[in-house]
Amino acid sequence: MESDNFGQGSELERSFDTVFISLGHDLPRPTPNFQFALVIGRNFEFDRAWPEHKVAVELEGIYRRKKYVVCHICNEPVRARKRDGSLGKRIPALGYHQHYGRFKSDVEKYNLATQLGWSVLRFLHDDVHADPFSMIETIRKIIQRRESYTPKIDQLTKREDQILHLIAGGFTNNEISERLQIKPNTIRTHTQSISQKLCSRNRANTVARGIA
């Protein structure tokens, strides 16, 4: 379902939406300011996202007029150094990532999202305004790749579904073998089949894709 917030937000977000409507009309429309919990008790937000494909876009580097990097000791704007050692222009601050706490939160968000199988694309102001064709083409390739590798959860057998839930419960292959009274080699065959059907790379990715 399309969000009423599409086409709204910051100048960069509005520009992205305008470009997307023009150049990405063949693609599903993203959800603006998509919020979700990657871990219990922590909510995260992506600027634009396609949750059904686990693809997200973050728009970075919005220039703020008269905002400069400030020294945390003397509270004065930081100035660049020229080759002769003299002071040059003040260094502009781009976006809010000059704040360590928010930068750290974003790093945590990207790492957790990647572990759960998300593809997170980050674009700058110049990507949106100066090279929108390349930006949209990058998004298109990622979404098309995800569509061709859609997890086939409904194709899991009852036994595979049972093993998947035991994997999610933290059981090893040997423990699953003992619990279900099945040979370890048979368990390995089942887990390989589950991974192929869910297009997963490892056990954590298998659980993320297979357990709703």
TrEMBL record:
It holds the Pfam family GerE. The keyword Repeat does not apply. Keywords: DNA-binding, Transcription, Transcription regulation. This is HTH luxR-type domain-containing protein. SUPFAM superfamilies: C-terminal effector domain of the bipartite response regulators. One of its GO terms (biological process) is regulation of DNA-templated transcription. PROSITE patterns: HTH_LUXR_1, HTH_LUXR_2. Signal peptide: none annotated. The keyword Electron transport does not apply. It comes from marine sediment metagenome.
